[in-house]
Amino acid sequence: MLRDLDTLIASMQPELQPGVYVFASLPHDAVVSGAGIVATFREREGLTVVMEESAAQAAGIAPLFRAAWITLTVHSDLNAVGLTAAFARALGDANISCNVIAAVYHDHIFVPVDDGERAVDVLQDLQRAAGKLSASPKP
Length: 139
Hints:
By secondary structure, the chain is α+β, with helices and mostly antiparallel strands. It contains 4 helices and 7 strands. Strands 1, 2, 3, 4, 5, 6 and 7 form a 7-stranded antiparallel beta sheet that branches.
């Protein structure tokens, strides 16, 4: 589990997951289970679900956001500082919005579906730059 920011960025290894994912909001009493569910989060206004687009369509769930899902395969410490800010800044500079879910083992980034591959390129550029910095001799 890594905590050093330069090492985290240099090791993040972004991986584009296959498929299209959607964010949707359901009533609090909605029953959500089964294949296709990636994440849920209970908010005051309702239950946010992230799920495979095909599963949402089959269930008649209206998507609010269609996304590509990128996993940073580095095992980052939940106490690590700055990783989310670094990749969000890089994506923002490339005019790519991102929605982030930090799980126990990995960070998961959801970007507009049409920006998935370009977002991976941006993240790989950030990773390469951090790798060069961490490989440089320290004064």
